User: Which sequence fits this backbone?
């Protein structure tokens, strides 16, 4: 009879520890809930019934639209025009939010905040620069963040718009290379998160072992949860470089009015 009871208790214990592993059950939280609430009434009497119309749903994913209209390009005679040398830099602020929701081909604009002085030429603060989203994508798996690439295509000077070739070199004081504004890559951060999950599970399993060691009936089985927890921790650590591949990097969202630096890649001509 004692052997039969022991087998039953052992089977019950295995069932409990398995559920703990799957759900990462925190017994201390469960006990605290039981002290404050009647668990038999939680589902129907404590929580109100929500109408069907109030059922939460996922927010719609929308792509921002841009009202930026690029003025018509003015044809120019380079023999009589003023030259803006290549590598000229403009300090500017964005006139709209720029994010990885931006569609390829969308127009964007910037307004300069400082005057630019060149030989026989002054380009005042408040000058408009226009660009186009040449590439964009949302955060991707393997930890890659979002991407926005902007080409600066024109400048408005004295009421006329002229073609230019420029790139973004800074966004909010952060250096930008090849005009690619990228969200943070979070692969290693996600690896760390997966390891932390294994460590958290091990701590819960160890706490369960400590509680069982104080029970005269379950004391012989108390080492099992710690062993299972250690195994889970080891598995999470070993597999974290693989499981983290499915996580995504961070988004890009640069609000209107943010500071940018724009550099000409080739000489521009204005009149």
Assistant:
């Amino acid at each position: 009879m004692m052997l039969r009871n022991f087998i039953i208790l052992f089977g019950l214990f295995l069932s409990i520890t398995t559920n703990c592993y799957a759900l990462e059950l925190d017994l201390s939280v469960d006990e605290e809930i039981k002290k404050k609430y009647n668990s038999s009434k939680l589902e129907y009497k404590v929580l109100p019934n929500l109408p069907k119309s109030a059922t939460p749903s996922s927010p719609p994913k929308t792509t921002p639209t841009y009202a930026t209209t690029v003025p018509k390009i003015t044809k120019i005679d380079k023999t009589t025009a003023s030259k803006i040398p290549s590598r000229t830099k403009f300090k500017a602020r964005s006139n709209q939010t720029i994010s990885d929701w931006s569609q390829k081909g969308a127009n964007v604009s910037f307004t300069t905040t400082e005057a630019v002085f060149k030989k026989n030429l002054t380009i005042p603060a408040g000058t408009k620069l226009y660009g186009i989203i040449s590439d964009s994508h949302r955060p991707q798996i393997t930890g890659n963040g979002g991407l926005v690439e902007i080409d600066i295509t024109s400048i408005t000077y004295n009421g006329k718009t002229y073609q230019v070739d420029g790139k973004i070199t800074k966004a909010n004081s952060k250096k930008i290379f090849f005009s690619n504004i990228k969200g943070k890559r979070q692969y290693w951060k996600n690896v760390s998160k997966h390891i932390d999950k294994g460590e958290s599970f091990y701590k819960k399993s160890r706490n369960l072992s400590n509680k069982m060691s104080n029970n005269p009936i379950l004391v012989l089985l108390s080492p099992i949860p710690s062993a299972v927890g250690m195994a889970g921790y080891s598995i999470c650590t070993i597999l974290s470089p693989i499981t983290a591949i499915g996580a995504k990097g961070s988004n890009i969202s640069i609000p209107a009015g943010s500071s940018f630096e724009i550099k000409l890649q080739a000489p521009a001509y204005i009149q």
User: Anything to note?
Assistant: Residues 82-185+250-270 form a domain with the Lipocalin fold (CATH 2.40.128.260). The helical segments are 2-23, 27-36, 42-46, 187-213, 223-243.
